[in-house]
Amino acid sequence: MRLELSKRTAIVLTVALIVVGCAWSWNSLTNLPWHLGLLDDEPSLSETRLLLTSDDLQQFQPDVVIANAYPPRVDPPVISVEEASRKIDDSELVLGVQINGEAIAIPVNMLTGPSRTIINLEVDGIPLAITWCELCHHGVVFRREVGERVLTFQVSGMLWHESLVMRDVETESLWAQSLGKSMAGTLKGTLLAIEPSQLLSWKNWKRAVPHTQAIVMERTRTDLTTDYYHRRGEELFVIGAEQNQQARHWPYQLLKASRGINDRLDGAPVWLTMESDGCGVNLFSRIAASRELTIVLRQDEWFDEETWSTWDPSSGKALSGPLAGTQLKRLPCQVSLETAWFAFHAESSSDFFAPENFVEASEVLGDWNDDGDDASNLFDQ
Fold this sequence. Notes:
Blueprint: H1 2-30, H2 45-48, H3 54-58, E1 63-64, E2 73-74, E3 79-80, H4 81-84, E4 93-99, E5 102-107, H5 108-111, E6 118-123, E7 126-133, E8 138-143, E9 145-146, E10 149-150, E11 153-159, E12 164-168, E13 174-176, E14 181-184, E15 194-195, E16 198-201, H6 202-208, E17 213-214, H7 228-232, E18 237-243, E19 246-251, H8 252-258, E20 260-265, E21 268-274, E22 281-285, E23 287-288, E24 291-292, E25 295-298, E26 301-304, E27 310-312, E28 317-320, E29 334-337, H9 338-344, H10 361-369
Parallel strand pairs: 2-6, 5-17
Antiparallel strand pairs: 1-11, 3-17, 4-5, 4-16, 6-7, 7-8, 8-15, 9-10, 11-12, 12-13, 13-14, 18-19, 18-29, 20-21, 21-22, 23-24, 25-26, 26-27, 27-28
């Protein structure tokens, strides 16, 4: 009897230890940042994200990852769209910029990697820095002119709050890519001008800009394609924009569901749209012919309620009607991981969840919901 009791006690103790051990292991795993998106009952990103205060953003204390800065990449070879199409898959995401009649794009699969996330070049005579922060999923094109000086940027080898820190060769000042701001050195406090750019598929970019050129390098990744957001989790991403230091953001999956949003950025009317393949966003001013427009979706065509002209949501150009040929001004915006956007834009506003702020929201989301997705809770955030 004692032997049986001892065996029973040992079994109970063993099971208890296993349960405790599993619970501890699971708790440890779920506290790691990479578990986000794997659990059905996980806390939302808005509850777990890192919010930096104004004081935090003034205390620049980057982490040194690589001891020395990488040599700058300046004026890389560019190739024609015909040649590039033999080397770039249609589904690959590219970061493209267009100034007047000149355009250039580079696949982000080729822009990732510690030594190559900044490309210095000129487009239509304008000195630019094409930058990509892999940890933030954040691509920004900056103008390299500061006063009378043209700067040359390089990867500093540092990270600040898991974001790329850039360094200019001329003054050795350090810059936060997420803010476009010099945080240390001679140019401390200086802001770089942002040039509107697009992160979208190579197929859609070359269709919109058939005369584009491209930069092609060896790939460091292959997964940054049109299905990346679906695979990674669309709920993890936002579209962010800033005007006069007033930041605003829109959830990626909500824009995908509604296809277009009439909103305001720092009080100015804007129109946010998504490319037809659900990958790639555009932000335009809604001012045309000295009037504010409200652009709505009717039977798969975009009309403004003021003149009933039709609009192309990719280019922001009026296709027909009284405003035919009118071009809306493109504004800078970035797709970013939500955690990264809020790390540097803690005051970013998103008070647009009421359905009336959406273009045909109930109709569009109703169609979307017919596919089996539950859109009913999107306005409850």
